[in-house]
Design goal:
This protein has about 575 residues and is an alpha/beta fold. It has two domains: about 1-310, ABC transporter transmembrane region fold; about 330-575, 3-Layer(aba) Sandwich (Rossmann fold), CATH 3.40.50. The chain is built from 21 helices and twelve strands. The chain has helices at about 10-45, 50-100, 100-105, 110-135, 135-150, 155-200, 200-205, 210-235, 240-265, 270-310, 370-375, 400-405, 420-425, 435-445, 445-450, 470-480, 500-515, 525-530, 550-555, 555-565, 570-575; strands at about 330-335, 345-355, 360-365, 385-390, 395, 405-410, 420, 460, 490, 520, 535-540, 540-545. The strands form three sheets. The chain has a six-stranded mixed sheet with strand order 6-9-10-3-11-12. A four-stranded antiparallel sheet has the order 2-1-4-5. Strand 4 (about 385-390) and strand 5 form a beta hairpin.
């Protein structure tokens, strides 16, 4: 929680004056019973209506002033809390965007979303309630106890019996419920994960008619949340009845013993009324304090979850990228990599070099480590052994933003964002001209259909590119990576939705339009890699063959099997 206090630095005035005005309201509230005592002991007993009206006016004035102080505090609390929440979410979102893939994988996307939204809101509410009640409730308890003690010392013993009893109940309830709040948050993470997966995979779910199973699984998850929340509610429900029972018994005791004190002449009727009011104020403030503890407990649990995200180190900054020379632009030197949660290495002992303008193909079965190897080049993941060198610099020592500035990356799943085609095309180069965009679209074989769209480059792409086909999304993604003429282009199985003719045109256009760009193409098709300067064959994370297409046909059995499985007998004989 301490780590998050920095986001309150711009709201110091609200933090000071908010509780101050709430304190004034509490002081005025403590004065009211004394005024009521005077009304009873002086005005009513003496039947002095003028005095009663005068003192009643003072009570109204105290109430109006208290209302004004309360509203001022509410305004300051809201300004501070919502300002704090805004800055916290902005900082958290900025930090999440600075995290490496490894750090994001450690917590999980759904949990990060939940912490950014639900947990930040809980902490924000904690700040709000702190300003509004953290000073008022304890002050009322102490102030009312002091005022009651000043009225009658012996009768105050009732308070010193009732208050500890309520405190014991509060402690018992807090001890049982506090651990449950963190458990509830974890269950919310699970529900968020299921929601995200279901919404992203809605087409697959419907294709396999799995709606009922998914609904049942989601219902189980939310039922767990409901059950946990109900358990907390059942325990917390004891608080108010038990507290009010003790309070009412305490009032009965005060009236009983107070009546005896009045008969003995040691106490007036007005003082007894004031004492009863102070008793009520103390016990109600204790209940408020208990609810405040619950809110703070939730806030602290959420603050710890947010702090866990801030504790994740951002991607390290390093040196600037030198200009790419004519020599090796990429070198892998005995590179191995294992994901944190995986027992085995996904890539083992990979070594190769790639010169500027050359094309490298990577092929292999599913799960052979192709995409993982490609992800090491932009520094999405850091190798656990060996070195990845780009333009003569170890990727561990170079600034990640500088490194990715020279790389055009197209992931397996084409990702487009809500906005126009032009806005999507300017992700690599914000000031790209229409001429540069159109040139990239032509190279990616996308201009033909983009030019026929209703508004051309100004055509709006819906969320996730739902108004485009798979092949269209892939071609726009490839064109986006080409804007700005990157030194390195990584195509991670990003032509899988293209037909063979379009794939061939794309490869020819890349060689013609971007001759100086080094291309790493991951593909399941041997036909897409046949003309590559070098092909790496991966199997179970290890390279089992490196060479040209002709060399691998003669030396690598795995590559030969892949090639023959994709060629018919006639094509195989002609080969």
């Amino acid at each position: 929680m301490k780590r998050l206090l920095r986001y309150l630095k711009n709201y110091k005035k609200q933090l000071v004056f908010g509780p101050f005005f709430k304190l004034l309201e509490a002081i005025f509230e403590l004065i009211v019973p004394l005024v009521m005592a005077k009304i009873i002991d002086v005005g009513i007993i003496n039947r002095d209506s003028a005095y009663v009206l005068k003192m009643s006016g003072i009570i109204v004035l105290l109430g109006v002033c208290g209302l004004g102080f309360a509203l001022t505090c509410q305004f300051l609390a809201a300004k501070c809390a919502y300002g704090f929440g805004t800055e916290l979410r902005e900082a958290l979102y900025r930090h999440i965007n600075s995290l490496s893939y490894t750090s994001i994988d450690r917590i999980g996307t759904s949990s990060l979303v939940n912490r950014l939204t639900n947990d930040s809101m809980t902490v924000q509410n904690g700040v709000n309630m702190f300003i509004r009640l953290a000073v008022r409730a304890p002050f009322l308890v102490i102030g009312a106890a002091v005022m009651a003690f000043m009225i009658d010392v012996r009768l105050s013993l009732v308070l010193f019996v009732a208050a500890p009893l309520i405190s014991v109940i509060i402690f018992f309830i807090m001890r049982r419920t506090v651990p449950m709040y963190k458990k509830t948050q974890q269950k919310l993470d699970k529900a968020s994960l299921l929601t995200r997966e279901s919404l992203e995979g809605t087409r697959v779910i419907r294709a396999f008619s799995r709606q009922s199973e998914e609904i049942e699984e989601f219902n189980e998850a939310v039922d767990e949340i409901a059950e946990c929340s109900a358990s907390v509610g059942r325990i917390s429900a004891i608080l108010n009845p038990a507290a009010f029972m003790i309070m009412n018994l305490g009032i009965v005791a005060i009236v009983w013993f107070g009546g005896l004190r009045i008969d003995g002449g040691s106490l007036t009727q007005g003082e007894l009324t004031a004492f009863t009011n102070y008793m009520t104020q103390i016990l109600l403030a204790l209940v408020v304090l208990a609810n405040l503890i619950v809110i703070f407990t939730k806030a602290f649990a959420s603050a710890n979850r947010i702090s866990e995200v801030f504790d994740l180190p951002p991607e390290e900054t390093g040196t600037k990228m030198p200009d790419a020379g004519s020599g090796n632009i990429i070198e892998f030197c005995g590179v191995s990599f294992a994901y944190e949660s995986a027992g085995e290495e996904s890539v083992r002992g990979l070594s190769f070099t790639l010169r500027r303008g050359e094309e490298l193909g990577i092929i292999g079965g599913t799960g052979s480590g192709k995409s993982t190897a490609a992800a090491l080049i932009p520094g999405f993941y850091r190798p656990t052994a060996g070195e990845v060198i780009v333009s003569g610099v170890n990727v561990n020592e170079v600034d990640a933003e500088e490194l990715r500035r020279i790389i055009g990356y197209v992931p397996q799943k084409a990702v487009l964002f809500t906005g126009t085609v032009r806005e999507n095309m300017r992700w690599r180069k914000a000031d790209a001209t229409d001429e540069e965009i159109i040139a990239a679209l032509k190279t990616a074989q996308a201009w033909e259909f983009v030019s026929k769209l209703p508004d051309g480059l100004d055509t709006l792409i819906s969320q996730g590119g739902k108004n485009l086909s798979g092949g269209q999304k892939q071609r726009i993604s490839i064109a986006r990576a080409l804007v700005g003429d990157p030194d390195i282009l990584i195509l991670d199985d990003s032509t899988s939705a293209l037909d063979y003719a379009t794939d061939l045109k794309l490869r020819k256009a890349l060689r013609a339009d971007h001759a100086e760009t080094s291309v790493i193409m991951i593909s399941q098709r041997t036909t897409s890699l046949m003309e590559a300067d070098k092909i790496i064959v991966m199997e179970d994370g290890s390279p089992v063959g490196i060479g040209t297409h002709d060399e691998l046909l003669g030396s690598c059995e795995v590559y030969r099997d892949i090639y023959r499985s994709q060629m018919n007998e006639k094509e195989d004989r002609n080969a």
